[in-house]
Amino acid sequence: MPPHVESLLRDALQRVAPGTALREGLERILRGRTGALIVLGDGKAVADLSAGGFAINTEFTPARLRELAKMDGGIVLSRDASEIRSAAVHFMPVSDREATESGTRHRTAEHISVVTGLPVITVSASMNIIALFVDGRRHTLDRPEVILDRANQALNTLERYRERLESVMDHLTSQELEGSASVRDLALALQRQEMVRRIIAEISSYALELGTEGRLVTLQLEELAAGTEGNTETLLRDYAALRLLAADAGPRLPAGLEYLLDAGLEEDEVIARQSASLAELSNADLVDLGCVAQILGANPGTSSIDQVVEPRGLRLLGHVRNLPRAVAERIAEQLGGLPGLLAAETSELKAVEGVGEHRARIIRETLGRIAEHH
Question: pTM of the predicted model, to two decimals?
Answer without folding.
Answer: 0.81
